[in-house]
């Protein structure tokens, strides 16, 4: 891709902040006045693609006037999300400095193509969030469509991926996908959206720091002066004061190449461990569900919970398999014993249900 280096025009790292949604001119100006000085770009959602109907979907084009007021009064560059060609044309008309394409739009190549054609030849910066599903090619494809229309000031935003199984994060970071993007296109600035990954303001700082450990170029953080009263995504927005604290606490890793390689490699390996640990816990949960079914079956047929022959056969089989995998016999014995004891505990609980003991 033909990429213009635009991020060097900003102080590194790049911080973008502002409310999830524009709610009023007063709200926008209040937040802009309280943002820390490290923030150079003010963001606000004018159009909000929502998961369910009858939700707040943004104030619409009137919000562009409020964005322009922020730009005029406080000197910020301004940015908003565009989800179709009409949004793109309106944003250009109001001289919005930076446009971003959201995760729900990135998944639709036809929609991205229409936006790219509406922006053809623009010198505006266009950022593309990763698609909601973990598809690197779809992410890259959106940027290629924009580049194919002569748009060279491009950037990417990592906001995590939707998943059916929820854990502590709203969207799974799956950092390796973002790192694969970074490795493939090092010339394209990569920002992190810790607000959408976290889904919880108490986790935003943790996610932000992890992104800098990976060498990201900046952050887009949702910020609201009264976040609990926000019209959308209230739980993940931080106050300007908290944003200031987050920025000041961030550890920006050394740009010494040897140090960068060390931190990137270490974080990549730790991320793999986190993924494996999560997978192990999910498998253990599934195993215990099966143990519960076995307990119910034993109770129905009046069979004892503990079956020594079955346990000895299982243990011997697992130890043999463990040795083949390079694991110590002692470790696997202790691990399997702990699992077996938990299974016994679950089945004993089932045996005691509705029974006088």
TrEMBL record:
SMART domains: CM_2 (SM00830). The keyword Endoplasmic reticulum does not apply. GO terms for molecular function: chorismate mutase activity; transferase activity. Keywords: Transferase. It is an enzyme of class 5 (isomerase). InterPro entries: Aldolase_TIM, Chorismate_II_sf, Class-I_DAHP_synthase, CM_dom_sf, CM_II_prokaryot, DAHP1/KDSA. Residues 260-351 form the Chorismate mutase domain. It holds the Pfam family CM_2. Coiled coil: none annotated. Its EC number is 5.4.99.5. The keyword Transferase applies. One of its GO terms (biological process) is chorismate metabolic process. It comes from the Bacteria. This is chorismate mutase. The lineage of its organism: Bacteria, Pseudomonadati, Bacteroidota, Flavobacteriia, Flavobacteriales.
């Amino acid at each position: 891709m033909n990429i213009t280096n635009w991020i060097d025009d900003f102080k590194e790292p790049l911080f973008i902040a502002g409310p999830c949604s524009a709610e009023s001119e007063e709200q926008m100006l209040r937040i802009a006045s309280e943002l820390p000085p490290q923030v150079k770009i003010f963001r606000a959602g004018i159009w909000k693609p929502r998961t369910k109907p009858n939700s707040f979907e943004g104030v619409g084009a009137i919000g562009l006037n409020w964005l322009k007021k922020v730009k005029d009064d406080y000197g910020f560059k301004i940015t908003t999300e565009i989800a179709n060609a009409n949004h793109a044309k309106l944003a250009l008309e109001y001289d919005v400095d930076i446009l971003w394409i959201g995760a729900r739009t990135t998944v639709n190549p036809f929609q991205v193509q229409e936006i790219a054609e509406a922006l053809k030849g623009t010198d505006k910066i266009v950022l593309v969030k990763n698609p909601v599903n973990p598809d690197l090619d779809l992410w890259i494809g959106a940027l290629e469509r924009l580049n194919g229309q002569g748009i060279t000031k491009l950037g990417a935003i990592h906001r995590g991926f939707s998943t059916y199984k929820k854990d502590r994060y709203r969207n799974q970071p799956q950092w390796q996908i973002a790192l694969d993007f970074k490795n493939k296109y090092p010339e394209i600035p990569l920002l992190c959206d810790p607000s959408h990954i976290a889904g919880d303001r108490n986790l935003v700082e943790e996610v932000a720091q992890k992104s800098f450990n990976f060498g990201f170029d900046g952050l887009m953080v949702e910020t609201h002066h009264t976040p609990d009263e926000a019209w959308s995504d209230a739980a993940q927005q931080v106050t300007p004061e908290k944003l200031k604290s987050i920025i000041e606490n961030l550890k920006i890793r050394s740009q010494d190449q040897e140090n960068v390689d060390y931190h990137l490699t270490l974080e990549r390996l730790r991320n793999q461990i986190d993924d494996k640990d999560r997978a192990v816990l999910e498998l253990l949960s599934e195993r215990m569900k099966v143990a519960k079914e076995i307990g119910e079956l034993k109770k129905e047929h009046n069979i004892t919970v503990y079956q020594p022959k079955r346990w000895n056969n299982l243990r011997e089989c697992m130890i043999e398999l463990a040795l083949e995998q390079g694991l110590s016999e002692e470790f696997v014995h202790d691990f399997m014993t702990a699992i077996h004891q938990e299974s016994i505990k679950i089945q004993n609980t089932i045996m005691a249900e509705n029974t006088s003991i």
